[in-house]
Design a protein that fits this description.
Oligomer: single chain
Largest sheet: 5 strands, mixed
Radius of gyration: 25 Å
Structural class: alpha+beta
Strand content: 15-25%
Number of domains: 3
Bound molecules: magnesium ion
CATH architecture of the largest domain: 2-Layer Sandwich
CATH class of the largest domain: Alpha Beta
Length: 366
Amino acid sequence: MRESDTTSGEARPVRKIIHIDMDAFYASVEQRDNPELRGKPVAVGGSAERGVVAAASYEARKFGVRSAMPSVTAKRQCPDLIFVRPRFEIYKTISRQIREIFAEHTPLIEPLSLDEAYLDVTENLQGIELARDIALRIREKIRAETGLNASAGISYNKFLAKLASDHRKPNGQFVISPETGPAFVETLPVGKFHGIGPATAAKMNALGLFTGLDIRNQTLEFMNANFGKSGAYYYWISRGVDERPVRANRIRKSIGAENTFSTDLTEYGALAAELEPLVDKVWRHCETTGNRGRTVTLKIKFADFEIITRSRSVPAAVANREELKRLACGLLEAEMPLPKRVRLLGVSLSALQAGGEPEPQLTLGI
Ligand SMILES: [Mg+2]
């Protein structure tokens, strides 16, 4: 019996968590948009001479090409490898499309990256009983609307859902039930656990821990003593237990925009003019998201790449574009005359309040 379940003497209902993961995302988008790349080994990012691979198509993976691999190594392992430049704006657009599909089923969406997210569908908007059916519908709709394949893992917690989505890739899904969870983890090599990196895996191996079962055979005290704060997490996941909630709508900490000039600048007038489009961009974001902030930061990068930042906080959230501009220009003015030529300016707004949240009132004496 777990401690968290004993308060009322009654266990909480089993959660239904889906982990959705697009298959070879960047590479699949490139193959979708360029028929000549289909069926061929494709690497997004890098070039035949330099850089690293950001994503590899399944055809390239057959040759051992992996993301984060130096391009030169990738080309050696797969001489026919085709390098393609990434198009992040397209990937972001598709990411928004798939999040809209998720939102048809639940507001509890926690994106991990552009192509991966956890969904809590315990209570879901269409009242579908089985999470596996929701996953099927989501994958079908992603396919219909984007032409791309996604895989899904379905389980009763985040840790197992993420493991499950890898299990039938590509274009598949897999369920790990409360009955099969502990056995699934038992045989798993520790290096395959999400959250256990190569260094921790090596440390575990040195302690004789090679599989989930090996961890499960240890006491909580042993795990705490050897792995500090993470010890308890490993102890519980080796039992298939993970109580972390799906965290929706993480609030951004700041909204910012910056620009590098084609020629370095020093005059106040020219620099203030360059602030205009940055202020526009930040304020437009405030308006579309409803977020507001109290702290304005100006970033200045000089021609020698030295960077300074200057901030000013105001008592109530910045109310409009003019106020944002006035504060940003004030920070710039205070730095005049500048010691060196400037190659980049940035403006950001932080200490954000989410849209719809009441703003603190300024009290006026009467
Ligand atoms: Mg993926």
